[in-house]
Specification:
The complex is a heterodimer.
Chain A (H helix, E strand, L loop, with lengths): L1 H5 L4 H7 L4 H12 L2 H17 L10 H16 L11 H14 L16 H11 L2 H12 L4 H8 L3 H25 L11
Chain B lengths: L3 H12 L5 H13 L3 H17 L8 H13 L6
The chains are: A mainly alpha, B mainly alpha.
Chain lengths: ~200, ~80
């Protein structure tokens, strides 16, 4: 029956809507686990669970975020999570801390030109893996996968203040590592700031 | 008119497109005029572009994709 073939609950619909997000899910799983083989296992489990639960997915909604939620929930079962809430002003303090970080480069490289250096892609990947998972997962969802704060709240099941403070702190830690690398590599002077 | 401190507190949310339109407009106008905040904005923008570029380089192996497709083909949809 033609209707059965195009019904949104069908396997065809799953393949059409869910499979195109394989790279994104793998990228997220890779960031969560820090290992290729573990990321493959987590990605496979995510898709198997998604297939089983496909009838719970609402067609036309954010399928990628739905897959991220499944992936993250599976991962949460494997790891002991830190679910504490952050203080309400933590996100603002982190924003200000990033601004202070920039002050050290305000004379030597005010616009962050060193961030265009080709080798920094590898540095970002390596430093991302060194971050605590709670920071890494929000950076991947926000900055690599372009998800909104509201979607990240839904995926992670934490308050929006926590999402923001973890995101901003994670970015600051990453920036600190990048600046340190850039100084070691001579991309920016070791002593920035006013002379 | 908002001051630099307010802009620095909200810069990430501005860059993420998460502020209400009125607040976002205020920050945009401030950045257009402020020689102190604008470089910070450009720096953070460059940082976000760099992080975003790393996503494309994290791709699963073709062998894994083929295996996953085979596993999914043999798995059943939940009938309920």
């Amino acid at each position: 029956m033609a209707d059965t073939e195009t019904h949104p609950d069908s396997r065809e619909a799953f393949e059409r809507e869910a499979l195109p997000h394989l790279n994104s899910v793998y990228c997220f799983a890779r960031a969560l686990t820090g290992q290729d083989s573990a990321a493959e296992d987590l990605t496979q489990d995510t898709y198997l669970n998604a297939l089983k639960a496909w009838q719970q997915y609402t067609p036309g909604t954010n399928c990628r975020a739905w897959l991220f939620t499944i992936c993250r929930n599976l991962r949460a079962r494997q790891a002991v999570r830190d679910q504490r809430e952050e203080p309400a002003d933590a996100a603002e303090l982190e924003s200000l801390a990033s601004a202070a970080l920039h002050a050290g480069l305000s004379e030597s490289d005010p616009h962050g030109g060193f961030l265009d250096a080709p080798e920094l892609g590898d540095v970002v990947r390596a430093e991302l893996q060194k971050l605590p998972e709670e920071y890494r997962e929000v950076i991947v969802l926000s900055d690599l996968e372009d998800q909104s704060y509201a979607t990240i709240v839904a995926v992670l099941g934490v308050p929006i203040g926590t999402v923001k403070s973890r995101l901003f702190r994670g970015r600051r830690l990453l920036q600190e590592a990048l600046i340190e690398y850039a100084r070691d590599a001579g991309l920016v002077p070791r002593t920035g700031g006013p002379r | 008119m908002i001051d630099c401190h307010v802009v620095m507190k909200q810069l990430w949310e501005y860059l993420d497109g998460e502020l209400p339109p009125a607040e976002s407009d205020q920050i945009r106008d401030h950045l257009a005029m402020c020689a102190r905040c604008y470089p910070q904005y450009r720096h953070q923008l460059a940082f976000l572009a760099l992080v975003s570029r790393t996503a494309a380089a994290t791709a699963p192996r073709q062998e894994f994709i083929r295996r996953l497709e085979a596993v999914l083909a043999s798995a059943e949809l939940d009938p309920t």
